[in-house]
TrEMBL record, chains A, B, C, D:
Entry protein name: FMN reductase
Domain NADPH-dependent FMN reductase-like: 6-141
GO MF annotations, alphabetized: oxidoreductase activity
Originating species: Rhodococcus rhodnii LMG 5362
InterPro entries, per the entry: Flavoprotein-like_sf (IPR029039), FMN_Rdtase-like_dom (IPR005025), NAD(P)H-dep_FMN_reductase (IPR051814)
SUPFAM superfamilies documented for this protein: Flavoproteins (SSF52218)
Keywords associated with the record: Flavoprotein, FMN, Oxidoreductase
Amino acid sequence: MQFVIVSVVAGNPKPRSRTLDAATRVATAVTGTAPDHTIDVIDLGAALLGWGDPDVAAAVRSVAESDLVVFASPTFKATYTGVLKLFLDQFETGEGLRDVVAVPLMLGAGPAHALAPTTLLSPVLSELGATTPAPGLYLLDSTYETDGRAEEYAERWGRALVRAASR
Amino acid sequence: MQFVIVSVVAGNPKPRSRTLDAATRVATAVTGTAPDHTIDVIDLGAALLGWGDPDVAAAVRSVAESDLVVFASPTFKATYTGVLKLFLDQFETGEGLRDVVAVPLMLGAGPAHALAPTTLLSPVLSELGATTPAPGLYLLDSTYETDGRAEEYAERWGRALVRAASR
Amino acid sequence: MQFVIVSVVAGNPKPRSRTLDAATRVATAVTGTAPDHTIDVIDLGAALLGWGDPDVAAAVRSVAESDLVVFASPTFKATYTGVLKLFLDQFETGEGLRDVVAVPLMLGAGPAHALAPTTLLSPVLSELGATTPAPGLYLLDSTYETDGRAEEYAERWGRALVRAASR
Amino acid sequence: MQFVIVSVVAGNPKPRSRTLDAATRVATAVTGTAPDHTIDVIDLGAALLGWGDPDVAAAVRSVAESDLVVFASPTFKATYTGVLKLFLDQFETGEGLRDVVAVPLMLGAGPAHALAPTTLLSPVLSELGATTPAPGLYLLDSTYETDGRAEEYAERWGRALVRAASR
């Protein structure tokens, strides 16, 4: 288990966001160690709007070569952000996340969008070829640090996720 | 692996349907052996409309105690059938499919609904607590016996599914 | 406006449910008059599991001939019920709700499934040919009688709904 | 009817795309006249990644002040693009498209994603407050110019759309 490579991807237009922090906490809670790679998508800037940028390609590669990745987004318009989708659009359909175990994570201000990680974000990750054993996780951005939900999720799903990610 | 208990659930209003046949083929292709239990939901009849029927309870239990289950439906109105959902409504939210690896399968007349198993059926199985490592599978009801798609799916996802289902 | 024919359809396995009551309130709030037809789906019983029953056909016809219909369901497993879907499966794809303005309504115990009427129920009604100008409405089954949400929805969307329904 | 203000929004990372062309054709087929405003989202460039840019604000305003808008995207990863979502993220939740009749349009290489405009794009437009009487339209990017589907859609839904858009 200690050889699983873990990454987090945060798709918030604000750098160093609570989204990124929550993703890091979830990755740590699920795997027991801090993530190896962190992609704060907004750092890639305008290169996300086109194809072929080397920094974007390097970020895509580090995600594709991970064993387990937390993909995190705030909730904008009842679903994941355009910023996160821009990054996901850079992966190859059906192949880009092959052999990657993906954890869909969304944060929001209230409970109304709790379904979105499972019904909206998870299918996109599936389309990229990811393995998605667990449902998505939805956290409240005002309480995620202390409400214990990330830990409950890790307790419920951590074993299945790490097992799927172990080669 | 030979100890994985495998079931198929088919939610077609017609008994002995192509849905059931396709589900059995997929279960066999994925696991290498014929399913241990077969639930043709329509056989449960009017008891599905209420709660507490012993035959329904026995069917629910045999599914809940399986390690890997193919949940299959024809495509009605761009999604799974009312008959299948009636049966799924009998399971306990978050717990009814705990420790069950679920494979969402839908059949249809044309390709337009290929997304439905992943975006519509899979989230319901997640809500029941199932582990869903692989995307859903969509088969054409006119060609599934010979088009090789069930075998491709088994080739692509069988190892991850059986691994997740093995205790 | 007084010539708009209004119906409510409630898909709760319990007859005379809060689902039916809420649907009636929403229809009344939106149109200003009590519904002309009420279909409590569970009353149709085991005939829903097959095709060609005359009572089911009469219920389908009365809905199809309405101008505005509230389709209501409790939230089971994060989506509409099998009972409601059984009834919807009786309509012809693309045509069964032609010229019907549909209002998707779901009730639940908590706020987590607030998206479901718009993302899950509304597309099924669209697939049947319905006109769906407004988003779905989600009500809490413990407070819908007094929390004013049905009235807010009627205030926000009533004019567009009635206008679309007027011939 | 001649006073309806019509816009098209195309969210393709390539400027002057087939997406934009198809959106213009659909708007014209539905309303009988060429669109008044055209937003090729990619023209807004890196300003889409932040908030408060005056060109983005002007584009948002011209859409918000329209009566009928075709929102168009190619299919990337089984859903709309990150580029389109970036632009939609600039609108105010529940209000940004108030009194706008929205037509969700997606183009793809094959028929497998035909559901996406109705199940994925339409709910985002609803969340922004748009009126969405008609289902989404999915066109094949290789045949949309001649296959007659845009015209069929206009025939089936044009009257309801224009009526909803007329003040």
